[in-house]
Design goal:
The structure is a single chain. The chain is 49% helix and 0% strand. The relative contact order is 0.14.
Length: 181
Amino acid sequence: MNMPSRFVRSHPTRTIVLSSTIALCSVSWLLACGATIGASDANLAKAQASQSTGSSLFAANCAGCHGDRGQGRNGPQIMGAGALPQVPRDQDSNQQFTDPQQMEQQVKTRAPGTPSREPFNHAGDLFHYVSKKMPPGDKAGSLKPEEYWAIVGFVLTAHGAAVPEGGVTPQNASSVAIAPP
C-alpha cells in the first residue's frame, strides 16, 4: 500500500507535541484515579478523629492488605467509591487482590452458583464477615468482638457511611447502611 510521504515520515515537532499530550493525559488520569481510590481525605480524617481505637486497630491488623486508605493492596478495596458492594463481585474480576490458593479453596467448598459471601446490607453483616474471616488464615477471628466493632466503625466512617456518634454497636448495627449516603 502506497501512503503519501506525509504519513510515512514523522515530523519532530508533531512527535514531541503528541508525546507530551499523551504523557500529560496519562499523568492527569493517574492523578484523578489516585484521588478517588479508597477513602476521601475528608472521610478518612473524620474516621481517624471519631473512631481513634478503630483507626489504630485497622492500621495494625488490616492496612497491610487493604491499604492505609482502604484502597486495596493485596486485599480488596474496602473504602470509597465502589468498595464494599452489597453482593460480592465475580471472583474472576478481582483476582489481582485474592490469594490464588485461598480462592481455589473457596471455590472447592462453595456450592456452584452460590456467592462467596453473604450480602453486605448493614454494619452487622460486615461485622459478621470480618469477625469470622479476618485477619485471613490462621488469625481469622483472633480479635475481641469490641475490636472488630471498632474496626467496622472506622471502616464505615472512612467509607462515607452514616455512623452514629459513639460508633457501631451490636444494638445499632442493623441501622447503619454500608453504602455511603
